[in-house]
Fold this sequence. Notes:
The chain is mainly α. It is built from eight helices and no strands.
Amino acid sequence: MTETTTKRWGLITKALLMVFLIVFSYCVASAKTENLPVFGGSVETLEEAKTTVMGIAGATIAMSVVITFLPDDYATPLADSLADMNKYFILMLGMIMFEKLLVIKGVPLVFRFVIPVALILLLAYMVTKREFFKALSLKIFTLAVVLVLVVPCGTALSEKICAEYMPYVEETVNLAEDGAEKVEGISDSTADKGFFEKISVAFQSAIDGVKDLFDYYKGIIQRFIVSIVILIIAYCVIPVLTFALLLWILNQLFQFSSFKIRMRSGGDE
Length: 269
């Protein structure tokens, strides 16, 4: 068997392998991703995150109802602070839903279309030896890897980094809900001495007037602000940083800039 024949059969074998991987990615891998534990665990984590955000959003609604017990001069600044929090809840829920859609819908699409395209370009490089196809194939494949790994890596990092801070968030939600229930359970809503005596007993602390009640809820809102910062870091900042970090690592690994130099200097060889 001549050297030319050996190279030809080697090329045919590699081409058949590429075709097999394309078919496998399109038909099998794209249909089985939902059953893989790494993606199933990410979806469960995102559901828990959504529950946490919805819980703290519900607690703010309960607090807004309770604030109506205060005079307008005291209630207005608290109500404004609560209203300003809504945009952060929407941002976090939007990010969580985007990550969930990326896992449930996006990852199968990556295996069905993106990875096969990268493999087809790699096959074209094997046949033509043009560096352009190799560079483009690796770039697309890198994007596919990032899209597949970003959510599992992001959720894992969020759990690892923010695990010790989540009890603070849960404690804040419970404190707000408990405070709302205690005030709502008091039938006399008139701001007289009897009302504040009942409030003081309910909270097991000295609340002798409107200002004390205002300070109490101001403290809870401050805890809400800290909790929102924790949740934004866990559910927004870390996923974005994970995406950027994965992209940077793979970019450094494959050294895409070198392909541009090769394309300019030796693409026609």
